Amino acid sequence: MRYALRGLERCWLSEHRCWSHIYHLDGRASPNESLRRSDVFYTLNVLLGMSRIKKVPSGLNLLETFHHNAVQLTVLAVPKYALGMALWASAELRFELPEQVKRDVRALLSDQAGWKTFRAQDLGMLLTGVVARARAGDREWVSFAAPLYRFLQERFHSGSGLFFDAPSGFRRRFASFATQIYLSIACYHYGEFTGESSALAMADACVRKLIALQGPDGEWPWFFDAAGGRVLDFYEVYSVHQYGMAPALLEWAERYRVRGARSALIKGFNWVLGQNQLRRSMLVPDLGLTIRSQIRKRELTTRAPRMLRAIKNAYSGCEAGLIEDSGVGLRLECRSYELGWMLWSFGQRTDLLELTHNSAFGKIPIPA
User: Fold this and answer.
1) pLDDT tens digit string along 269-289?
2) Residue 219 CB partners (closer than 8 Å, separation 6+)
3) CA 116 to CA 131: how far, in whole Å?
């Protein structure tokens, strides 16, 4: 965890009291790039990760940082899922939500007609956050949990085992890996809190499907056809999925004894350590950072070909696979929330030392 904490030191923007949107790894003189609505959300994600570590770096006031950034949610044009992250992080840190944030979240959750605009990440984080607050003893959020879960069950669940990305519309079937992570984690949270077996069953089914679709080197594919349960495109392959978000889900799956969960976690993590298509580590030990992704070289600055390819594969039935190594490049940046997921997924694990204490991380000095 010292590795991630060291990297976060580099991403800290003292003037804004938050962690940055992007830390560029291309050698530019000022590597930190700020995008305020993203900085705020990423900071809450990092704070969620901080809730699982034993020792917070000296000089970092978690309560003040949380309050400052949570309040920004009410004045910036942030996505709905950022409010869910505020609920979740505050519950894990045992912090009170600022009253203006409570007001905005209550309004959002009380307008069930507006839920039709939710994307998977919105719904997943809001449900997880509501359950986390309720589990922490904040009973005012309990009444929202069951309606949110029913909405998920009725509008986002696919018979393939994967989740849809939206409740309706053309875009619905085109689901990302993040779609699967956020909705599965929400189902595990809700199922464990309420004893609802259908929620646990949906989460287990999604994990089993993801494991079946994992790439030959442990890659977690980026884009799926949720209706057909197929991979539409492997790229980009994101490092945070390998060492952070997939392990967060697979920790739940291990607890519920989903076959293959632990081995899939290890294989996915080893992708970051160099057992990947390019046979190179995705770590930057000198900085305590990670390289964001492996991507088709021609798509570093545009998503259009990726979307067109996904549509073609969805309707033609073509199977997606890895391309030739020569066509794969690197996205040379790191985002602070990625390190937050590393802290969350491994901050309390002592059973995977071959991963968490791998020599690839280098010798990391103990922070003050």
Assistant:
1) 999 999 999 999 999 999 999
2) 234, 237, 242, 268, 271, 276, 277, 322
3) 21
